[in-house]
Every structure is written in C-alpha cells, then in structure tokens.
Design brief:
Layout lengths: L18 H5 L8 E5 L4 H12 L3 E6 L2 H7 L6 E5 L5 H14 L5 E4 L10 E2 L3 E2 H23 L4 E5 L22 H23 L5 E6 L13 H6 L17 H4 L1 H8 L9 E4 L2 E2 L2 E2 L10 E2 L5 H15 L7
Parallel strand pairs: 1-2, 1-4, 2-3, 4-7, 7-8, 8-9, 11-12
Antiparallel strand pairs: 5-6, 9-10
Helix pairs in contact: 4-5, 5-6, 6-10
Length: 323
C-alpha cells in the first residue's frame, strides 16, 4: 500500500448511506464474524446488520449480561466475556472463540473509549492506548489462525478523524510526562490506522486483508465520559442532549463504512487503506482541519506501522502472526 492508493474508488454509497443500504441484498449465510463493542452504538448496528444478513456473530463484551439483554432478539449471535484493557481477559476470550469457530471471516474492531480521565492499566499503560490499540492488537494475534483459515478474511478497525490530533508519541506513548485526554485519544486512533496497515502487509499472503476507517461524527455511548458542558461548548448537542452539530450521522449511518469495508467487492484485492463515507479516503495535509476529512500521511506510513507493530509485540507479549 502506498499513499497513491489512498483515493476514492467511486463507491455507489456516501456519507448519508445507512447500514441497511450497504447490506441490502447481501447473503452472509455461513459467514462468521467477531464484533467488539457489538452491543452498543455502532457496534450494535454492525451486529444487527451482519446477523440479519445471515452471519453468525460473536460479541466479546466487557458487560456480558448487559450484552445478552440487548442482543436477546438478534438471531445467530452469541456473547462472551472480554475486557479489552485486560490482556488476560482478551486471551481467555480468544481461546473460547477458537473453541467455537473453525474459521473467522470478519473481525470488526469497533469497541473503543474516548477522551477519558487519566487511567493506568496493566504495567502502567495509558488507558486509551491500551484498550483501543493493545487490546485489539492482542485479540487479532490470538485469532489470526482462524482468519488465515478463512477464504479471504477481512479485519476492519474503527479509527477516527481524531487521528489528526497527533502522530504516535514515540518519546512518551503512555503520557508519563503529563496527560492530555484528547491527545491520548488521537494517538490511539492513529495507532488503529497504523495497525491495519501492517496487519495487511503481514496477512495478505494468507488472504487476510485489513482496513481502518473513520465512521463519521456520531453521538453514542462513546462520549459517556465527556461532560454535557464540554459537548455543549463544542456545539455537539443542546442543553437537553439533542444532537445539533453540523455533519453528525445517525448510528446506522456511522456503521455503514465499516460494513462496506467488510463486504464490498470494490475492495477485493486491496488492503491497508483508510476509509471514510463508504469509500477510500484521500490523504490530507496538515493545513486541513479534522472536519475536512482524509487521512494524515503519518497514519498510513508503512515504516511507522512496522515500528508500532514491534512496540506492540514487545509490550503485550503477543505471539507473532502464525497460521
């Protein structure tokens, strides 16, 4: 993948496309999928859409009882316990998934946390980097044999336009010299994009292709730790919590790009790309604002992706990818 590949393909869909429109007429019978965060927000929309098309969906959940209640009417769906911020929990969940499935066609890394107060997990890792990146990194490594066993598996990772806030802080990725919740979020989202780049480079020989994406601006449970006052000041919502911000999507529209990434034949033979609005995004320069769309070159740089991969292997103790 090079930056010249980062250009729209002419998708028939757009920013206003819904999950239902992307999935219209698709039959995913016999397809297996894992959707992290698949019981709330964009993850719930993703689970419902995949299951409605006939896929068997496994939802790893930090709150499994809540997930089972939410998903009780979704056929072809099962829940297992998993906390992305706890690598022991991730490995235990992956072992249960390997016991249940012979292959994995789709891994949808939708779960995430956003602009949280400072939290330390594991050996002192910054919490957003740990949950958003390390957790998904370890889960993918544990499930890779199932992905390689499928015929053309895809891994879809939710990044964000928030990646424009910062490159990886190689000198201090865990904010030991001072915490900033928005820079921590931006770094985690850059990590999500770089993860997809190198996973695709390593996995394409096994038919495993990977994509990162910006789902759009959507108010969901992701903003649960951002105060109403801050959301008001940012112009996202009114005093009653109603969405008033310009360009915001519904959850169904927000899930559309991930579902398009998982199913579109336009992406056959491609990978390592950053997507938005149900198409491949353009590369954006530093003079462009977050709302202008596109992906920064540092978030798709192969050398940086390889460096982050090695950092993540060392930090998490994840086994290098193997069939």
């Amino acid at each position: 993948m090079t930056t010249t590949d980062q250009k729209p393909l002419g998708s028939p869909f757009s920013a206003t496309t819904s999950a239902e429109e992307v999935m219209d007429g698709l039959d995913l019978s016999g397809t297996t999928a894992v959707v992290t965060g698949g019981y709330s927000g964009l993850g719930l929309e993703t689970t419902r859409a995949l299951a409605a098309a006939g896929a068997h969906v496994v939802v790893p959940a930090r709150r499994p009882d809540t997930a089972r209640t939410v998903l009780q009417d979704v056929k072809g769906c099962e829940v297992i316990a998993m906390d992305l911020a706890d690598l022991g929990s991730v490995r235990a969940a992956a072992a249960r998934i390997r016991d249940r499935l012979g292959r994995l066609d789709l891994l949808m890394a939708v779960a995430g946390i956003m602009a949280t107060p400072e939290r330390r997990v594991g050996p002192g890792w910054e919490g957003q980097f740990a949950a958003n990146h390390f957790g998904h990194f370890a889960l993918t490594g544990e499930l890779y044999p199932l992905l390689a066993a499928a015929d053309g598996a895809r891994v879809v990772v939710n990044s964000s336009a928030g990646h424009v806030l910062t490159d990886i802080r190689w000198h201090d990725p865990h904010f030991r010299t001072g915490y900033d919740k928005w820079l921590a979020y931006g770094q985690a989202k850059t990590a999500n994009a770089l993860f997809a780049v190198h996973l695709d480079a390593l996995g394409r020989g096994d038919g495993v292709r990977s994509f990162a994406l910006h789902p759009g601006k959507i108010i969901t449970g992701l903003q649960r730790e951002i105060s109403l006052r801050e959301q008001l000041d940012r112009g996202w919502v009114d005093e009653h919590g109603n969405v008033i911000g310009s360009g915001f999507k519904t959850p169904a529209q927000g899930a559309a790009t991930g579902l398009w990434a998982a199913t579109s034949p336009l992406l056959d033979g491609l990978g390592g790309l950053y997507l938005e609005d149900c198409d491949v995004a353009r590369v954006s320069g530093p003079e462009r604002s977050m709302d202008d769309g596109g992906v920064r070159s540092y978030a798709i740089a192969p050398d940086a992706a390889a460096r982050l991969w090695e950092l993540s292997l060392a930090a998490t103790g994840t086994t290098p990818l193997a069939r």
